[in-house]
């Protein structure tokens, strides 16, 4: 297939693109390479897809690497209403995997406009392009944050998600509603994937895994919010990639009704881990003790996430299962190699 992957220079987008290419698909990767976090890390990811740092600064470039000769990179904002339709018209994608978004819960308190531009206006442009250019299937990233501070755990896709506690979560809930409307009105398939606390090699520097590892190795204190009394369903990146690929290729194993055009799935490890236990596992891997700066709960943070993935098991016979200690080992190994620690 020819697949558009938006957010291709991002953490999940990079891994998805790499796996799709390895499986023989053609990929057009789109990203605006903004400076929300270290641009150098984004450019390094693209280098591993055959796009040199200089090439990533221009409008579009075919990868120079023979290994990834079916990859082309396009630098563009999703909000670009002129060039995005042109891209769809020229490339004639089979499916679209929309992972581009302004990420981060706390940052949404500081810069709300960025979330509306990218996550709402940008997603609308993706939907319009899909309906106008005969896209078979749109797979897009949602988030576990849509569940807010629900006490009904584990989180099921059937439960009410009308109470997001951050603007980021509200935009992801909005994406699901917008996708439903477009599937209903125009008949193309949309599948939303609610990711649960993704971590692993090439991860984002603003995430706990990255922040904690860096601080501990530098002998600095780590900020532990809500005094560590939070729980997260930490999900290793390879498990996320496998789930996304199964959805993209529609490898159904049950009597799923394909005529139902709109679906939403949780992709999580189905195991809620206390933050202090997560830190202890990291300390064990690093063979160092963290200096903990205990702080109150931050605005927008949820107390607990825990995924019910029964729908994913039913329709795709898939359950993420990488243990936290194994996942931490792989991340730390990458971190040490990448930063030469």
UniProtKB/TrEMBL annotation:
Gene3D superfamilies: NAD(P)-binding Rossmann-like Domain
One Pfam assignment: Epimerase
Source organism, top-level taxon: Bacteria
Sections of the chain in a coiled coil: none
Keyword vocabulary terms for this entry: NAD
CDD domains linked: UDP_GE_SDE_e
Residue ranges of every copy of the NAD-dependent epimerase/dehydratase domain listed in the record: 3-258
Protein name (database record): NAD-dependent epimerase/dehydratase family protein
Originating organism: Flagellimonas ochracea
């Amino acid at each position: 297939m020819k697949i558009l992957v938006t957010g291709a220079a991002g953490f999940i987008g990079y891994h998805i693109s790499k796996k799709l290419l390895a499986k023989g698909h053609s990929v057009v990767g789109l990203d605006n390479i903004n400076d929300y976090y270290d641009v150098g890390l984004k450019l390094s990811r693209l280098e591993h897809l055959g796009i040199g740092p200089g090439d990533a600064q221009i409008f579009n470039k075919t990868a120079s690497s023979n290994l990834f000769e079916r990859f082309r990179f396009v630098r563009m904002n999703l909000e670009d209403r002129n060039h995005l339709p042109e891209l769809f018209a020229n490339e004639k994608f089979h499916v679209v995997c929309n992972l581009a978004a302004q990420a981060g819960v706390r940052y949404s308190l500081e810069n709300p406009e960025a979330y509306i531009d990218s996550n709402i206006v940008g997603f609308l442009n993706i939907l319009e392009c899909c309906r106008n250019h005969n896209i078979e299937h749109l797979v897009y990233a949602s988030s576990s944050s849509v569940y807010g501070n629900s006490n009904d755990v584990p989180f099921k896709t059937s439960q009410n998600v009308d109470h997001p506690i951050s603007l980021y979560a509200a935009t992801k809930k909005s994406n699901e509603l917008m996708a439903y409307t477009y599937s209903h009105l125009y008949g193309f398939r949309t599948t939303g994937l609610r990711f649960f606390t993704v971590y692993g090699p090439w991860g984002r520097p603003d995430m706990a895994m990255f922040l904690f590892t860096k601080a501990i190795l530098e002998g600095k204190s780590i900020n532990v919010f809500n005094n560590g009394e939070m729980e997260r369903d930490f999900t290793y990146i390879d498990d996320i990639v496998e789930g996304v690929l199964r959805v993209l290729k529609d490898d159904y194993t049950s009597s799923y009704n394909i005529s139902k055009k709109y679906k939403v799935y949780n992709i999580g490890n189905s195991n809620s881990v206390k933050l202090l236990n997560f830190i202890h596992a990291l300390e064990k891997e690093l063979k160092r003790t963290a200096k903990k700066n205990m702080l109150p709960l931050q605005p927008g943070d949820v107390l607990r996430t825990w995924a019910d993935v029964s729908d994913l098991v039913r329709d795709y016979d898939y359950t993420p299962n990488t243990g936290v200690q194994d996942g931490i080992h792989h991340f730390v190994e990458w971190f040490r190699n990448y930063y030469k620690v």
